[in-house]
Amino acid sequence: MSKISLIIIILLSINLFISLISFWKNKGISFLFQKTRFRKLGQSSQIRLIKQVNNAIEVLTKNKIGAIITIINKDKIDKYRTDGLEVNANISAQLIISVFQKKSPLHDGALIIDNNKIAYVGTFYKITSRSIDNKYGARHRAALWISEKTDSLTIVTSEETRAISFVKKGKIFEIKKDNFQEKLVEYLK
């Protein structure tokens, strides 16, 4: 190995080491062990969240009502959303369903759940610039974009096909209605 190659390897190693120190200084080691917001909730709050979202999704899909519901995990989402109404309401299937009724002025935007509360309704995200299958519409494209920026889980229901999708980490997962509740728990943990 030549001396120049050795010097380049050493410089790259030093650069990596400095980057790691900067990361640990800013985020801290606790970043690796943080619980999701869902896991921080008490058991009764977890059950309520799952039950209310499940009940809402059943009604929305049965009635072919499109929806986009984002459940915040560890990452903050405020800098990625626009407009909307801050509600800070207890989570309830009835409220979720009413937001997405076609005559509701808020039905085109997303509903955001944070710490077992409905934090925002009628809020908007940008859409992904990635090329995706034409079977997906604007809600899926917006859900993909927010999943590329944060660690949140976004649930999308299709008003055309009654399909349910989970969007997380830049990927769309089709979910069967029969095991929605089980998959919701799995994806939130």
Molecular structure report:
There is one protein chain. This protein has six helices and seven strands; from the N terminus they run αααββαββαβββα. The chain is an alpha+beta fold. The chain has two domains: 3-33; 37-188, YojJ-like (1. A seven-stranded mixed beta sheet has the order 2-4-3-1-5-6-7, sandwiched between helices. Helix 3 packs parallel to helix 4 (93-99). The protein is elongated and about 70 Å long. The mean pLDDT is 83.
- Helices and strands, in N-to-C order? HHHEEHEEHEEEH
Number of strands: 7
Question: Segments where pLDDT lies below 50 for 5+ residues?
Answer: none
| Largest β-sheet summary | 7 strands, mixed
> CATH superfamily of the largest domain, please?
DNA integrity scanning protein, DisA, N-terminal domain
Helix content: 40-55%
Mean pLDDT: 83
Distance between the termini: 48 Å
Strand order of the largest sheet: 2-4-3-1-5-6-7
As for the CATH topology of the largest domain, it is YojJ-like (1
Strand fraction equals 15-25%
